[in-house]
Design brief:
4-stranded mixed beta sheet, 14 helices, alpha/beta
Length: 427
């Protein structure tokens, strides 16, 4: 479909469950593939990125089979088989970066990692450099900065490493490599980032110590597979929460959603903007807090966002920009350098799409200043980025919007537009 037209939407009403958490699905599949025996991943995300992970793990010799809405995984017991062909990571940056850590210590195994045009442009040096310091043999374009990347497993030694910029993906890659390394691997974060890897290490009984912002691991022996329940993805829920906040008369409840505090910085910012939000943690699976969130239409006001919150909401910045477009006054969002190297240059994509909807915006090297007050109907471009496609569908929903190449939403949320229309029709 060339473009998807959303007519002006009246109140959004109803309850929904969003697909499983993408970050937890990636990591759960990898650790089950590394484990001994058979385990199930219940309610995972089955979308473009995570299906790439399943296919790559199959190419490495793990058995990954779909059982209805679940995955059944039979692991390799710490030792993957050498793939017969290039490993295609599709559009999944998390997959490529974590896979580098997973394969670096597989002594003698040779693999080549590539992806689509967007992924081949994304920076990989931030993972390659510390892995090489551990003894990893990784090569690629631009000295290993860009894929395709070639990895030959080698003996690794532990490393004490301070992340130059907050990155859960780099942290996770080094922790995975540390499971094969002699000595202790320690990663120190400048500010907290999402901690799904640490929670899953505990779930599977893998070595882990956390001391403030330092996380440590060391060589593991074989470990048994365990079943894992994946919570709903907060990043996917965020689109519906903001849609309800900006559309008059709306009330939406998202159920069964992950409420890990390293992921919910958006709730803090929206509350400061005057959002009528409430949430409750009901239960947790594998150490992940799970609960519900209710959003009601609210008059929002612009705010200056605390840069310390950005790592806790890095994937939600596009939908925060949608909320800011409808807020009275100015919203300033700093600390956005990482958004320049996501699936798209999200800073530029946000700015261009806001202008297409009649919103005044200034764009700096790592910041956005948005002067809100409402949007006008328009046509928006995803820039090959799932979160941009969904965020600007939400931004234009109250007045009507055309979203070019809507299929990009399927990278993380198959059925997004159907769910959005269902909530619109429920009123």
């Amino acid at each position: 479909m060339d473009a998807f037209r959303l007519a002006p939407c009246g109140p959004l009403r109803g309850r929904l469950r969003v697909p499983g958490d993408k970050s937890v699905t990636h990591r759960g599949l990898m650790l089950l593939a590394l484990a001994e025996g058979e385990g199930r991943l219940f309610y995972p995300l089955k979308a473009g990125d995570t299906l790439s992970t399943a296919r790559v793990l199959q190419a490495l010799g793990a058995e990954v089979r779909e059982e209805g809405p679940h995955f059944l995984v039979r692991g390799r017991g710490l030792r993957f088989q050498e793939p017969e062909d290039v490993l295609d990571c599709g559009n999944a940056g998390t997959l490529m970066r974590l896979l580098l850590g997973l394969l670096a210590g597989q002594e003698g195994l040779f693999a080549v990692l590539t992806g689509d045009a967007s992924l081949r442009r994304r920076p990989m040096g931030r993972v390659v450099v510390p892995l090489r310091a551990m003894g990893a043999r990784v090569d690629g374009r631009e000295e290993g900065e860009r894929a395709p990347l070639a990895v030959r497993g080698a003996p690794l030694r532990g490393l004490r490493y301070t992340l130059p910029v907050p990155s859960a993906q780099v942290k996770s890659a080094l922790l995975l490599a540390g499971l094969f390394a002699e000595g202790v691997t320690e990663v120190e974060e400048p500010t907290p980032t999402r901690d799904h890897t640490e929670r899953l290490f505990r779930h599977f009984g893998l070595p882990l110590e956390v001391e403030g912002r330092k996380v440590r691991t060391w060589r593991t022996g074989p470990f048994p597979a365990k079943d894992l329940v994946v919570p709903g993805d907060f990043s996917s829920a965020a689109f519906f929460l903001v849609a309800a906040l900006v559309t008059p008369g709306s009330e939406v409840v998202v159920e069964g959603v992950g409420l890990n505090p390293t992921r919910t910085g958006l709730l803090t910012v929206l509350k400061a903007m005057g959002a009528d939000l409430e949430w409750r943690v009901l239960e947790g699976e594998a150490g992940e807090p799970v609960g519900w969130v209710r959003a009601r239409h609210s008059p929002l006001k612009g705010v200056a966002v605390d840069p310390g919150l950005i790592p806790l909401m890095v994937d939600e910045v596009p939908v925060l920009a949608a909320a800011a477009a409808w807020a009275e006054g100015e919203t300033y969002i700093p600390g956005l350098s990482e958004l320049r190297v996501k699936e798209s240059d999200r800073v530029r994509a946000i700015a261009e799409n806001l202008r297409a909807l009649g919103v005044e915006v200034e764009e700096g090297p790592d910041w956005l200043r948005i002067r809100g007050g409402g949007v006008r109907p328009g046509r928006v471009r995803p820039f090959h980025d799932h979160r941009i496609a969904m965020a600007f569908a939400v931004a234009g929903l109250p007045v009507g919007v055309e979203v070019e190449e809507p299929h990009w939403a399927e990278i993380s949320y198959p059925g997004f537009f159907q769910d959005l229309l269902r909530l619109c029709a429920a009123s």
